[in-house]
Amino acid sequence: MSSSVRTTESSTRRKRWVVRRRAVLLMSLFVIPFAISALLNSYGPLTADSAIRMAFATVAGQTVAIGGAVAALVITVVSRRSIPGVIFFALVAVVVTMYALTVMGSAGELLLDRLDLVAETARLN
Predict the structure, then answer these.
(1) What is the pLDDT of residues 31-56, one digit of tens each?
(2) What's the rounded Cα separation, in Å, for the pair 20 and 4?
(3) Structural contact between residues 13 and 61, judged by C-beta atoms closer than 8 angstroms
(4) Angstrom distances, CA of residue 7 to CA of 1, 17, 103
(5) pLDDT at 18 over 70
(6) What is the predicted pLDDT for the residue at 6?
(7) Which residue has the higher pLDDT, 57 or 82?
(8) What is the rounded distance in angstroms from the CA atom of residue 51 to the CA atom of residue 112?
(9) Which DSSP symbol is given to 29?
(10) Distance between CA 26 and CA 48 in Å, rounded?
(11) Distance set, CA 61 to CA 107, 111, 121 (Å)
(12) pLDDT-derived band at 9, boundaries 50, 70, 90
């Protein structure tokens, strides 16, 4: 009789949807930023609009990467993983944030260079 009670409890309990921290990290570090860059890349001649669009795509992709690294850290902490796991994902979040801020700064410099090139081309024409 006790076995029937166990099966009833386990069958009525809902399965919990689990977010995998590795999947969040991989999607936010590689897949989503690449998709944003591919969608907003300029496949034609360089114009001021396309240069600004590409710079904003870079910043948006890096913002997603930062958010994903922090989300993976939060998932690790909330799921009460071991201390080494929390420390590892905290280090990953710090490294990703520092790298993303560097990439955002270089995107700004690249935007200025591209806008100068567009202006110089317009002057020559």
Answers:
(1) 999 999 999 998 889 999 999 999 99
(2) 32
(3) no
(4) 10, 20, 54
(5) no
(6) 55
(7) 57
(8) 9
(9) I
(10) 32
(11) 11, 16, 29
(12) low
